[in-house]
Amino acid sequence: MSEDFSVTIAASGRYDHHQDPSSPSSAGGSNNSSSGSTPHVIHAVNVTQPVQSWTVLRDHVDFITMDVALSSAISGLPNCPNHPSFDTNHHHHHSHH
Fold first, then answer.
1. Which of 37, 38, 71, 76 would bridge with 16, disulfide CB 3.0–4.6 Å?
2. What 3-state class would DSSP assign to 47?
3. Is 57 within 8 Å of 50 (Cβ atoms)?
4. What would you measure as the largest C-alpha separation in the chain, in angstroms?
């Protein structure tokens, strides 16, 4: 008897998390936010099994952390993709046509 289950990312959304200025994680990466808020991307992950299904919410940082942990244990894994950009007020578009 096989354990059939599927995992899908049902939705992704951005929220602006106002960080503590003394937080060490606010000192790097994106310098395009002047308000001191760091946009986070949250994924709603649906886990479906024959007996039950549930949805978990995970920050994209959790996927990056898992990618780093798994890539050190398993060789040949594809890189974790960057989170989608929801910036509507910036003029640099990442369109590859």
1. 37
2. strand
3. no
4. 55
pLDDT tens string for the chain (97 positions)? 566 889 898 888 888 766 555 555 544 444 444 455 677 889 999 999 999 999 999 999 998 898 999 988 988 888 888 776 666 554 444 455 5
Sign of CA dihedral 16, 20, 24, 29: positive
Tokens, residue 82 = 């960057």
Nearest CA-CA partner of 87 in 30, 44, 43, 45? 30
| Closest residue by Cα to residue 60 from 40, 77, 45, 79 | 40
Structure tokens at 44: 């709603």
d(CA 57, CA 20): 23
Name the E strands within 1-97: 6-18, 37-48, 53-59
72-76's contacts with Cβ under 8 Å and 24+ in sequence apart are none
